[in-house]
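Please review this one.

:::
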Amino acid sequence: MTLCIGALAYEPVPAQFCIVLAFDYKVSNDAWGSESEYKFHKLSDRMVALFAGSPARAKELALMYRDYLATTDLKDATAREQLMEPYVAFKRRLANMYIGRKLAISYQDLLGHGEQWLGTQRWQKHLDAIERHDPKVHMVFAGFIGDRAVLFRLWDEVEECTNFAAIGTGATTAQPALHAREQRPITSLSTTLYNVYEAKKVGESSPEVGRRTKMLVLPRPKPEEQKMVIEFVTDSGEKHLQRLWRKHGPKPVKYPPVFPDGSFQAGRF
């Protein structure tokens, strides 16, 4: 699988909220694996996405979002519902492909006439299969609605994330690391860069998370600019993050800790 992280941050000079993103390159299945997949998609002039799961399905879904956002402006009050629309269309497409492959009819025909044509038991069997179907793709959406920096996570449904978001098999260990560092939208950009890098390194405890790391920053677009700027962390920037990780990251305990007398009290139960 993978690990992708997004975190809201604050740049004091000039004062602005921004977003830090990180992802690995690993793609694998039960038989093979490689660190060769670029897990970043630009969806519009104001929104990008990172993905975990099937690269082919992620590309298909990203193209659907790109088409949708080309004609749709996200609004603060309805952004969550708006971002669900391409995903619902994507799941409907998968259902239609499944039914076409199995029965050579459309999904709409299954809903409208399936019970009559197939009988209740067989009809319900296919409906249950569609309900259990795993799209095999999760996403982190990052960008700006007006001047507001936003993060959304797609994990079967779209939810807005107030501090940070993580997807992939490494998320279960990366998210506690960000909580431990108390990562918040008012955390400085430089501190956030390290916090996200540390969370990525902690997430590498999963064998399905790659060692290569790509990090980038989305600063708030200037009023006169129509397109969002993407700032990539350079090789020298990553080497600095590696030095910080070696200094501040979790370290093994070299010697068994010694507790002074009086540290424990016996009790009877």
About this structure: The longest strand covers residues 137-145. The CA atoms of residues 64 and 86 lie 6 Å apart. DSSP finds seven helices and twelve strands in the chain.
